[in-house]
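Predict the assembly for these three chains.
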Amino acid sequence: MNDTLKKTIFNLIILIISIIAVVPFIWSLLASINPNMVMDREFFSPFNFTFSNYKYILMEFPYSRWFLNSVIVSVFVCLGNLIINTMAGYSLARLNFKGSKFILWLTISLMMIPSQVLLAPTYIVLTKLNWIATYKGLIIPFLFNLFNIFLVYQFLLDIPKDLEEAGEIDGLNPIGIFLNIIIPLSVPILITQSILSFTNNWNSYLWPSLIGNVENYYTLPVGLNSFYGVYYQDGNSVQAGVMLLTLPVIIFYIIAQKFLKSNDITTGIKA
Amino acid sequence: MKSFKIYFVMVLVLLSSGILFASGQKEESGEKVLKLVGWSTTPQEKEYVQSRIDLFEAENPNVKVEWEILANEYNETLQIQIASGKGPDVFYLDASWASMFIENYALSPIDDYISQSTIDGFYPSTLDAFRDDSNLYGLAKDMNTLVLYYDELAFEKYGMSVPTTWDELLETSKTFAAMDEYEAGIVLRTDFARFYPFILQNGGSILDEDGNPNWTDKAVVDAFDYYFNDLIGSGAAKTNKDFNGENEGALTTKKVPMMISGGWATAYLNENGKDIEWKMTKLPKGKSEKTVLFTVAYVMNKNANDQELAASFIDFMTSEKSQRMVVDSGLAVPTRQAVADYYIEKNPTLGANPEQAKNAKVYNLGVHTPKIADLMSAAGDKIRLQGMSAQQALEEAELEFNEYLDTL
Amino acid sequence: MNKTKENKFYGWFFLSPYLILVVLFFIVPLLFAIYFSFTRYSLIWGGIENAKFVGLNNFKNLLTDKTFLLSLKNTFVFVILSLPIQLIVSFFLAYFLNSHLLKNKGYYKTMFYIPTLISTVAITLIFSYLFQSNGLINIVLSIFHPIEVNWMDSVSLIKYPVVTMYAWIKVGVYMLIYLSGLMGIPTSYYETLKLEGGNFIHELRFIVIPSLRNVTYFITTMILIDSFKLFDIPFIVSKGTGGPLNATLTTVIYIYKSAFSSGRMGYATAASLILFLIIFVIAKLQSTVKERL
């Protein structure tokens, strides 16, 4: 088998896999603009193109307000995550001190607690702080993320020790090393982290619906869910809602990826 | 590398300023705040509830009603709010959850504030779930009963008549199921709430007078047999799971000509049922005419700040005037008998829904309703999926329920 | 300041924002939850002061609770099926995406990640359609052997659609992590191998897999923890019941139902502590294995 053929087959296979991956998304998209695709989930039903579902949501609901709330919350949570998780991950991975192993295991262990049983107690804490229905309540408890701390930790483990030592010889303290050596080296993982944290927060429903339970503080998923009736959960407007929720975050993802590409780790671990 | 440092500092500044600007929420004082928690199915429903709230505020100028709408995870959120010590003053409560709240002393009785004549104006069955031995805890805001929906076009085309008894239902379903045009005669859901009417119609009851399970009673077993073996097992009926979970959708896409659902389904049928001529009628009767009634009430939290105010709000929201607005919105059936005529006058084709209220039993089996529903649905699944006999499935369910009670 | 002291100071300094937040918003609530596990408590009783201490009763009852034990068994099945699938698929997706043979990587990266972005509800809807008795899956399988079963309504089969959906939603994330690991492997390694005449298998065996040891450990741990806590998909698929006949009842669904529909918060927290212990032991084992390798 020659190389061109191999290449073509390989590309074809990946193409097929990627198409399979986006089928549910495409289906949602089609359902949102096609009034005929209600229950049948048929891709090939007679095609009528309409934006009425989108119009319905954008006109009947304060979409822009919810969107703005979502942006505020997701941006702050994402930035806070980048700082706080990266700091914690750095400390755990690179600064060997008494207690760091314990904190690491504590971090991993806490992930094993099903969050469902913590809903009520955490809500009680937030009530005591008077943070229900405030941006503070929607943002601050989510500024750290156990998963991401562990993620950063694992990646920083792989950085060669001599880079740090070079920094030490230059007279840098750990803060200097963190800012001047570690951060530039971990651009790919920071971007990965920001994607995970942003998308995770953007789609998060249960917590924001508990904390931001006043219409002014609805985030997009909470707002859109506020009209999916109890008994009446179908219809294409729901799919339009799904699209209006998903498209912004896909755009964010594509931009973040571009950033990753342009940096292309020239500053990265290859050094 | 410099740029990263700058970026980092910028982020820090942004972050802290964000936290600062987010703070500084002050509560306004001087007026009484009444907090209401409920849900809303459509923007129209939201609008009419809001307009009633506005009227209440106009009549009580020193009162401000805060209405919080919860769509999903309603019970969870409500319970969490109550656990945090506050909770709303007044909230919507589904009848199936009422016993749990009443028996755990989470509600305040309202009889002291509501006149007997007001209470007498309601269909008694709508208030059953919200009573204990001595007190009444809520007033129902609307109700729905399970009815039979059918596609009149199908019945006219084949010269069939709409079934009114179990035998007719089975025969008609079999006839339609045999046609190529239809996948089955009727679509049935497999959760307990939907086959509960058949148990009632057969003279069965789920709990005896002492609250013990009564499930191997012949009336119960036979009802299971009819529903899961005669109808579903024979192929005369298919379940909603055969139609990707869709019940109403199976009717509107002409896969079946009959369907059982509550009055709320009309909203879906109006929107999606343009290809059929859907009609509503009473459930086919067994030994007696019985159906299940679903209702939601306004109830008062035990911790309500101003109980008198909360009660007067409940009274206001369920008043005859309010209920006329419910009717005008076309979304639900009023719970006051006086308004029922107005409803039928407005919706002549939907009369079956309120007419059945007299023979309906509210969907509430006491504090263990969720567990009982689980076990009953599981018994149905055992018959349907594993071919177990109804007798054995129900014996097992009863055994499991007794074990469950022992662990409490 | 000597090195140890300096490390200690800065170590805690860097950890402090995280520790303040985690104590306030995780550990304090967790302590409440641990207290609940020794009590009889329903959320609608109001404040915590209403919880009644019952000692170890909840734990004792759980160990003989057939439904709880069944939920643990189901969870183990989901974990055992999900772990290899998610690990292998995410690895190969990342590996392919990193291959020099592939054109238009950016587009594929986006497409592979999209499943993690759409709502779980939308995904479960389309999947249950695919797994219907007359759905696409059966049509394809019928080429080999006629099949007419509704996967979504079958006690023995429903776990496969659930596992598939779960992998569908999750592999994008792990792929991304694998990818950033792969991108960190110096190209010089590959070049050396090429000079020595190594093939694709050699590349995997001598370069990629050893270089990604930490990443693989991380992802394995995450899949383990996450799949032991599996909740969303079976919850939505079964409309919150864990059915048909408890086939999709994971431990966390049981915990959720106990807390919110049976009003047994104490029982639910006790169950989650047992689940925690199980995950902890397995994660500890796994980390020991990793140290040995």
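Chain B touches chain C through 35 residues (CB under 8 Å). The longest helix of chain B spans residues 2-22.
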